[in-house]
Amino acid sequence: MALLEISGLVQAFGGLVAVDQLDLSVEDGRIFGLIGPNGSGKSTVFNCISRFYQPQSGGIRFNGKNLLKMKPHQVVRIGIARTFQNLELFENLTVLENLLVAHHTHFRSKLPGCALNLPRSRREERAAREAALEILRLLDLAQYAEEKVPSLPLGMRRRVEMARALVTRPRLILLDEPASGLNHREIDHLTETLRDVNDRFKVTILLVEHNMNIVMSLCERIAVMNFGKKIAEGTPEEVRSHPEVVTAYLGEKK
Length: 254
Fold this sequence. Notes:
The chain is an alpha/beta fold. It is built from ten helices and ten strands. Strands 6-7-8-3-9-10 form a six-stranded mixed sheet, sandwiched between helices. Strands 2-1-4-5 form a four-stranded antiparallel sheet, with helices on one face. The longest helix has 20 residues, at 119-138.
């Protein structure tokens, strides 16, 4: 069953069409790859799903709900989380505090209750802390809970960002180039982490990534974009040998 449905999506900036009539269907529980050369429109698709951009036409539905009527915080509340190519962590906060900030999207207590430290607010704070620590344990980050983010190596900071996404209890995670800047050892660890997250949390993953080893080893299905259009979709084997994909990446026919 499709969890995410994109139909006829068009996103333009002036005369530049960044996404051109995109159709995409991501099944529940799968790891789906979205690849293409730089500037092909992949991150723009993520920004439309996250509701940072308002497309000119088309539709995006998540679990049957129309995302185009929602704001970014509402998208998080219904179960979509995201990481960024350029890390968007709070560098003045600890690892644990970064997760607690994200968890507040599910708080029912209002500002006065939190300010007055009412019983309901205290219960929610305790539950949030326990949930955050559990996620950190599962991602082998618990020992760094009280560390400030800038003190950690890049690979670990990317795991922190993934932990922050998971603490919002998502059904779908949008991962925007999670292997960017990582060394071979960190990439191997990332690959295992993504596989474990998908299996353990039953989270659907939509992955934008330039490292083809990761994409081909993890993704059950892959769509390829070029100049805003989807030029191919299929299994890793089908995509790898598709003539238009070879042309887009190598500039020559196979």
